[in-house]
Design goal:
Elements (H helix, E strand, L loop, with lengths): L15 H19 L3 E4 L4 H14 L7 E6 L5 H13 L4 E5 H6 L16 H11 L3 E3 L16 E4 L27 E4 L7 H11 L10 E8 L2 E3 L14 E6 L12 E2 L5 H10 L4 H5 L7 H9 L4
Helix pairs in contact: 1-2, 6-7
Length: 308
């Protein structure tokens, strides 16, 4: 799982990946200089993996000066949790885990009728930010994920309740970022704000970044629901009339098992995944995340409540 940090640059003009990398590294260093206690959201998904790789590059040969935070739904893919724990151990990182299950157990949250826990992540996230006094939180939002992202900036100010107000978004001309905030407020930071899914995969290929095997073609028990292939697990599984079948699939994104669908795919290598994405007309969230199939207004409402 060891990755190589390449400190050199190839001669000639910068590629678009070089430019994206340089911008992201600049953002990490800006945050390190402006904030007292930043944290990186890390789920073991590909965007958070790339963010961590960029953070390691930004501060090499020193350690990453930020802890990691995982908002754990309790409905995780086992392969992803195994990867997360291996990365933390390998690079001697600090990991905070905010557990949705703990909030359900003590009555602060209730299970949803549909069983999905992604929408339940907001309260544990805000609690972890407040209790640990994190003043900057790195997330993996990209420009191709949702229309609502276009109204945010790289630095997204959140109030003392974690809420987002689009009217308070600040201009960011010439890569000048304003991190000023009052006591109790914090800033969400998006180092991948100008990246696309294809950029992320091309960068993974270039940097030879290892990923959980769930991102590549494999045989898995799945069943059809809401136009997606879902995998049974501790969260539950097929209902009456839903047949569990064995299919060759992979995942484009990773989240709560109850709302993250697999796609039929023969792609077993990064190059083959890139070839698939290059001709796809659906974003990974639109194709495989049930909770993201909502209107722009609904997404903005969730952001106002503190959703990332």
């Amino acid at each position: 799982m060891t990755t190589t940090i390449d400190r050199g640059t190839a001669p000639g003009a910068l590629t678009h990946l070089d430019a994206l990398e340089a911008e992201s590294v600049h953002i990490f260093r800006e945050v390190a200089g402006e904030f007292e206690k930043p944290v990186i959201l890390f789920s073991g998904g590909k965007d958070s993996i790339v963010m961590l790789h960029l953070a390691r590059k930004a501060f090499w040969p020193a350690q990453v000066p930020f802890a990691l935070l995982h908002v754990d739904t309790g409905h995780n893919f086992p392969e992803v949790i195994e990867y997360r724990d291996n990365v933390v151990a390998e690079h001697n990182l600090r990991l905070h885990v905010a557990s949705v299950q703990d909030f359900i157990d003590d009555g602060r949250l209730r299970e949803r009728p549909d069983g999905t826990r992604n929408p339940l992540q907001t309260v544990p996230l805000l609690d972890a930010i407040e209790s640990n006094r994190f003043d900057a939180v790195f997330g993996g939002g990209r420009r191709d994920e949702e229309k609502a992202r276009a109204k945010e900036r790289v630095f997204s100010l959140r109030d003392e309740f974690g809420a987002w107000d689009p009217r308070r978004q600040r201009p960011e001309l010439w890569q000048l970022y304003n991190g000023r905030h009052r006591v109790g407020e914090h800033v969400r930071v998006f180092p991948l704000s100008n990246w696309t899914e294809l950029d992320v995969w091309q960068y993974i290929e270039r940097e030879r970044i290892p990923l959980p095997r769930i991102y590549f073609s494999h045989e898995r028990d799945v069943f059809a629901r809401s136009g997606m292939w879902l995998a049974p697990g501790e969260w539950g599984g097929a209902k009456a009339g839903e047949e569990v079948v064995r299919r060759v699939v992979r995942y484009r994104t990773v989240g709560d098992m109850s709302c993250t669908g697999a796609v039929d795919s023969p792609a077993t290598t990064v190059a083959e995944v890139i070839a698939e994405i290059a001709v796809s007309r659906l974003t990974e969230r639109g194709a495989t995340r049930a909770d993201d199939k909502m209107s722009e207004a609904a997404m903005e409402d969730r952001k106002r409540e503190g959703y990332f």
